[in-house]
Amino acid sequence: MVDRCHFGQAASACNVSQSTLSAGIQELEDLLGAILLERTKRTVVPTPLGRDLAERARGLLSGAEELVDLARAAREPMAGPLHLGVIPTIGPFLLPRALPRLRETYPKLQLYLREDQTARLIERLEAGELDAVLLALPYALGDLEVMDLGEDRFSVVYPAGHDLPQAEAATPADIAGENLLLLEDGHCLRDQALAACELEGARRNAAFNGTSLHTLAQMVANDLGVTLMPQMALDAGIVRGLDVAVRPLSGKTPHRRIGLVWRRSSARKETFRQLGEALKAELG
């Protein structure tokens, strides 16, 4: 009720009837001798006490779930359900390679995937809705534990026949004056690529912000500019069949790092370690 402030929606989320939920809350209020919800004909609003009890209840439920996880992990670390968040610039490129091997190696592991931007995935992880998140670094992770899985280098993708200086690798200076196509705000790859490639001051095409790496590749193929692409996307064939060229970026820094993160209090650290090792092997 605290999350929904609506009896019908809350009952649906709890898979019970509205009358059952209402009766349960009334019984709890009678037991405590306190009002937890302020009810009118149109609205339901939690009282300050109701909100406080709800937050404490979340902590108790989370602790109970961790006890179950701890017992399960002790018996079989790579068995049972695991809710994994993954960002859109990793999921479509790494997971198609990794999932068949994971299913074969750990047939009892039930992997549920949630794809979203980093900030929202971290919120879900901290709220206990996800067990771990596969993301790109650097990123401010607070008190979360992180396992570094390896690096993912950036290359510049440009229209075929474009007059970039002829060299084995492109430099930041080569593309600083180009029409640089980027993902829209909210995608961490945008800032990571600019920082890693020392292009924070580069000219950017403000009229075109891609919603995905596939969109950026198509925009480059239509001669709208150049873009920065991670190696895992290139390995997955994202530019295959497009009239574009690819050149690596020079220097040691043009890359992002791939990481697996989880709550420090989680009881499934051995599960995450084994999962991380499996993903790390696919990164190669």
Walk me through the topology.
Layout: H1 7-14, H2 18-32, E1 37-39, E2 44-46, H3 48-75, E3 80-86, H4 91-105, E4 109-115, H5 118-126, E5 132-137, E6 145-159, H6 172-175, E7 180-183, H7 188-196, E8 204-210, H8 213-221, E9 226-230, H9 231-235, E10 244-248, E11 255-262, H10 269-283
Parallel strand pairs: 3-4, 3-5, 7-8, 7-9
Antiparallel strand pairs: 1-2, 5-11, 6-9, 6-10, 6-11
Helix pairs in contact: 1-2, 4-10
Can you offer a commentary on this structure?
The protein is an alpha/beta fold and 284 residues long. 41% of the residues lie in helices and 25% in strands. The chain is built from ten helices and eleven strands. The strands form two sheets. Strands 3, 4, 5, 6, 7, 8, 9, 10 and 11 form a nine-stranded mixed β-sheet that branches. The protein has a two-stranded antiparallel sheet with strand order 1-2. Helix 4 links the parallel strand 3 and strand 4. The model has no long low-confidence stretch (mean pLDDT 84).
